[in-house]
Amino acid sequence: MLKVAVVGCGGISGVHVPAWESFEDCELVAICDVRPEMMAKYPGKRCYTDYKELLEKEELDIVDICLPTYLHADYAVMAMEKGINVVCEKPISLNREDVARVYGTAEKYGVKFMVAHVLRFWSEYKFVKEVYEKETYGKLLSGSMYRLGGFPKWTWDNWMSDEKRSGLTPYDLHIHDLDYMVYAFGKPKKAITHRSKLPDQDYIHAVYEYDGFFLTGEASWYASCYPFGMRFRFQFEKAVIAMEHEGLKVYTDDGQTISVTGGAAEESGTINLPATNAYADELEYFKNCVLSGADADIIKPEELECVIDILNSF
Fold first, then answer.
1. DSSP readout, 136-152?
2. Fewer CB atoms < 10 Å away: N or C end of the chain?
3. For the whole prediction, is pTM greater than 0.90?
């Protein structure tokens, strides 16, 4: 039975905690946050407001870091120096040098480390990667990915509005899509980036050029109360695959519209794509690596460095 602690009770912990509690081979024994009131919703867990005290008093197999961005690398290193495996929310850091530091610490102390880049485990995104690799609908010609929303005014200590601590829109939003692009299609040959940034809003647009195709990405913290949305559209030689309004659909060049949905395939216009919880899937993948001794190499340090290099060019 793996003993797990979640550090940080912000928004993302709301999906991490239920995932850990659903695994029969894991026990979520402790929670840590500087705000005692945030831990009150987890009765029965040992609660800590001091991270170092948590590491000293608990015998842990995994620490799940759900803290603000600027704390990720240092807190991961502290846990791994105690011989504890670490899964850490994205991004690993705003600084490229931290990639080698964190992975070097994992190697030195013989523990596992993984950044929780959730789109790599998201069924709809996995489907596109498979179609691309198998050339199911021919070669990829173009793609568009975006995640747009309003300025996050709700964060603890207003940390997300501080560029030195959060990296703003590139590291909060666009990193999801860019990480997926690097994972699914490789490092782009060229990046053309644009940005519109004011104290109360931040919008970015990028064009990534590859051999034979190009991809565009958008991300925003608008000053207005624009509703959050994430979408994508990929143009292949023989089809367009889009997750836009009503789930994931394939529009083929012979006039078919195929719904890619969960559950059993009920008609010819449906593909059986199992419904999954990507947040639970990424954590299950990591804990299985810990149990088996396998490297959590679905995410590679050179990919993380590539993403940081591009994000720091905005």
1. BTB-EEEEEEEEEEE--
2. N
3. yes
SS3 105: helix
Residues 119 and 131: their CA atoms lie apart, in Å, by 16
Cα 107 from Cα 105, distance rounded (Å)? 5
pLDDT, averaged in runs of 10, over the chain (314 residues) = 96 94 97 95 94 98 97 98 98 98 98 97 96 98 96 86 95 98 98 96 98 98 93 98 89 92 44 72 98 97 98 95
Q: Which two tokens stand for residue 222?
A: 């608008």
H helices present in 119-246, as ranges? 123-134, 163-166, 168-169, 175-185
User: Which residue from 305, 17, 13, 276 is spatially nearest to 121, judged by alpha carbons?
Assistant: 276
Q: How many angstroms separate the first and last alpha carbons of the chain?
A: 44
Distance CA 66, CA 40 (A): 17
Three-state secondary-structure class, residue 211: coil
